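Service request form, structural biology core

Requester: graduate student, group of Dr. S.
Request type: structure prediction, single chain
Budget code: on file
Notes: please return the result as structure tokens.

Sequence provided:
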Amino acid sequence: MANHKSAIKRDRQSKVRRLRNRIYKSRMKTVIRRVEEALVAGAEDQAKEALALAVPVIQKTAGKGTIHKKNASRKVSRLTRRVNRMQPLA
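Core staff response, request fulfilled:
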């Protein structure tokens, strides 16, 4: 355990931040899973709707600093590509 007053506070803050980050990351994983489930089911409209809900959640998670911005960008890009590949070419 920490001995200095500042170290005790830092420990307290890190515990709070870890829990907060876990909430953000869990929410992000849930919306990604919903997109992937729609893709597996072959429901194109449902996948598009899920993607539209997932993108802001992923970007917000990056904005909070829970994940890196480039990591978020990569996740959005890969999900978007997968949803777009479902569509037949015109």
